[in-house]
Amino acid sequence: MSRKNRVPLSDRVVTAAEAALAAQHFVSAIDVLTGIGWLDSGAVERWRRGQIDCLEEVIQTGLPGISEAMRLFQAWATARGLLPSETAYVDRTARRQILRFSRSGNPAIEAAYRTHWVSPELSEKKRERMATKASRALELVVIQPLSTEWTCHRCGGTGDLLMMEKPGPACLRCVGLDDLAYLPAGNALLTRRAKANSTRHAVVVRFSRTRRRYERQGLMVEPQALADAQRDREAR
Ligand SMILES: [Zn+2]
Question: Where are the alpha helices (DSSP H) in the chain?
């Protein structure tokens, strides 16, 4: 056991799980594995974007360790009286594929990873709303910042558009969306066609100071998809 890991695994699992529960009223396996330092959020993000075959590939320990942490997590959640809620994990690409956690693909193991443990203190309605929100695959959201005084946390650069990641804003080149073309909102038919033709897309939003909320500005789509949609329109 290295000096860094002198705290027993069971304590580390409980600390990570309690922190996540306090912050969001539910805990997932990903929260725990991230909380104990076996998984970094960048890797989770790549996995959610469909760039990694299965999550276990990027967990920084072997299968025995993972199984032990999962067992401790479930024992804690059960003892704590939390309610299991199976959550669909779908990748954040236009393909919306079911994400795989384990190398084995064993259904019971997959289900254990997918299960969110929810605080029983929440009302049933709130729990339902939370489950719906978690299950809905998040759309990729690109932000048009109000000022260009921001720095990409990965490369130190800046730009007209950014994506928020856990550590901070990232430029489109770093998140791998810089090849997409911008299509401003306003033409519903063109937007719908370009989106349908594009295997990847992202919604562009901008914060409105007067309305105090993010508002949709347009869409990022593959340039070819946009060109095809424009040609279709002209052909009519
Ligand atoms: Zn960058």
Answer: 9-24, 29-35, 41-48, 63-79, 107-114, 124-135, 172-175, 188-197, 223-235
- Domain range spanning residue 189? 141-235
Q: Please give the distance, rounded to the nearest whole angstrom, from the Cα atom of residue 15 to the centre of ligand 1.
A: 33
Which residue in the block uniquely carries the two structure tokens 């990847």?
A: 200
pLDDT in tens, the chain (236 residues): 455 557 899 999 999 999 999 988 899 999 999 999 999 988 998 898 888 999 999 999 999 999 999 999 999 999 999 999 888 787 775 456 789 999 999 999 999 999 999 999 888 888 888 776 665 555 678 999 988 899 999 999 999 999 887 688 999 988 888 999 999 999 999 998 998 888 778 889 898 888 888 888 999 999 999 999 999 877 76
The environment of the single-atom ion ligand 1, i.e. residues with CB closer than 5 A, is: 152, 154-155, 157, 171, 174
Tell me how far the alpha carbon of residue 181 lies from the centroid of ligand 1, in angstroms: 18
How far apart are the C-alpha atoms of 230 and 218, rounded to whole Å? 16
Q: Are residues 113 and 131 in the same domain?
A: yes
Query: Are residues 100 and 186 both part of a single domain?
Result: no
